Amino acid sequence: MYHLALNNFPHSCNRFNMDERQLMEIVVPFSRGQEISLGEQTWDPKHTTLTVIEAPELPVGQLAPGRGWGNVERTGRDVTADVLARVAESDAKAAAAPGELAGLLGAHGARLLDEWRAVATRSPDLQPSEALALAELALRTRSAQ
Question: Is the pTM of this model over 0.85?
């Protein structure tokens, strides 16, 4: 289980007993510099400290105000750096993917990828395969002229 704390003195917010999906819903946008709303507060990553502790699930009786976070710190380990590193690695892989994808799309892959993005932006309701087909058609039409 994961337990999370956000601190921006004098404000703080704790979330307990989170699975990885719940944790990443908060950590991913936060690590990308996006403000997040949690509790009754908006948290700006530039001014907020994030802490993630991996520890056993806390029963409701151990979550009494002022006791929960102390219990987490005593029984768990700080994994903040590990979690942020995983997010950064995932972001780096995603950033490299367009270059790899362009290579898979053939000799004019970069142009096709740009056109595919343009079609998808203009028509967000299309399936990716439909947007790709329209992008290919647009490039063929241009090259035939």
Answer: no
